[in-house]
Design goal:
Elements (H helix, E strand, L loop, with lengths): L1 H4 L5 E4 L6 H31 L6 H30 L2 E4 H34 L4 H4 L2 H18 L1 H8 L8 E2 L6 H5 L7 H34 L4 H29 L8 H25 L2 H15 L1
Helix pairs in contact: 2-3, 2-11, 3-4, 3-11, 4-6, 4-7, 4-9, 4-10, 10-11
């Protein structure tokens, strides 16, 4: 019996949402619609930024990078989530689980840094407008973007290599929607203290560095805007930051609601629903926020539509 209990686990079973078939089919249809709307919305942003000359600016370049991040996150999570909804659960190998976790975690980390770079871009645009074109050059923007992606994908790599080498034994059931670090480590029969410590330190670096940059940037931005005597000028300056601030608020609110706010008293079903906020909800609303009141985006859409009708 002891030998059987210590059999190494190489495959897991994701439970997803356990419920009647009608509920699961309804949720499947909802997530499928959200998935395709999200993909189409973010692809539209990327296409417009790539083809419209009016959008060849640093701000829209970073917005397109954010759209790439949103596509990666939702494409990493939702397709398999749809599979387990249809089948009332599904098997996933350890390698597939680690890969899903890596793409998800690395992309979310990169998005943290991208939001920080976007705040820096707004700082330069408002506080140093005369030097904006010389500071935020195309080369500089590309370097900043590559740095964000490299930070995101390199920080998590070493930790997940160690996680893949852990021994998993006993139960192989993950009562969650996808492979996340906490439910996965709960199944390990190896010592995971060091991995938990490294994850904690990584989370601090990934959150604190971009957050500090965002806060400092907006302190200077608010100070500069308040010095503008014209109310119209102040309103115009703040309007260029409103979309970014909204995206930042939603992103950090969803992350903190899952990983920071105490889970005591929260049911497992509620935890799963909350996890949908940052895996499904955030990638959906980001392109909507950036295009809803953006005249440049609206103009680019009209120009593209006119070209297609010719």
């Amino acid at each position: 019996m002891q030998e059987r209990n210590l059999t190494k686990v190489t495959e897991f079973f994701l439970l997803g949402f356990q419920g009647n078939q009608g509920f699961r089919i309804s949720l499947f249809c909802l997530l499928l619609v959200i998935y395709w709307v999200t993909i189409c919305g973010n692809l539209l942003i990327i296409t417009l930024v790539s083809t419209s000359r009016n959008l060849h600016t640093p701000m829209y370049f970073f917005i397109s990078q954010l759209s790439i991040s949103d596509i990666l996150v939702i494409s990493d999570i939702v397709p398999y989530m749809l599979h387990i909804l249809l089948n009332n659960g599904g098997n996933i190998t350890l390698i597939e689980c680690i890969t899903q976790l890596y793409v998800f975690g690395a992309t979310e980390s990169s998005e943290c840094f991208l939001l920080g770079m976007m705040s820096y871009d707004r700082y330069v645009a408002i506080c140093n407008p005369l030097r904006y074109s010389t500071i935020m050059t195309n080369r500089h923007c590309v370097i900043l973007s590559i740095t964000c992606w490299l930070f995101g994908f390199s920080f998590l790599f070493i930790i997940l290599v160690k996680t893949a080498k852990l021994n998993f034994c006993g139960t192989n059931i993950i009562d969650y929607l996808f492979c996340d670090m906490v439910p996965l480590l709960e199944l390990a029969c190896s010592d995971v203290f060091i991995i938990h410590l490294e994850m904690y330190l990584l989370s601090i670096l990934t959150v604190i560095i971009p957050t500090t940059l965002i806060v400092i940037s907006y302190v200077y931005i608010v100070s500069a805007v308040l010095k503008i005597t014209s109310s119209t000028g102040r309103q115009k300056a703040f309007s260029t930051c409103s979309s970014h601030l909204t995206v930042v608020a939603i992103f950090y609110w969803t992350i903190f609601s899952v990983y920071v706010i105490p889970t005591k008293g929260r049911t497992l079903t509620m935890s799963k629903i909350v996890s949908l906020l940052y895996t499904v909800f955030t990638p959906l609303v980001n392109p909507i926020i950036y295009s809803l009141r953006n005249t440049d985006i609206h103009k680019a859409i009209q120009e593209t539509r006119a070209k297609l009708m010719i």
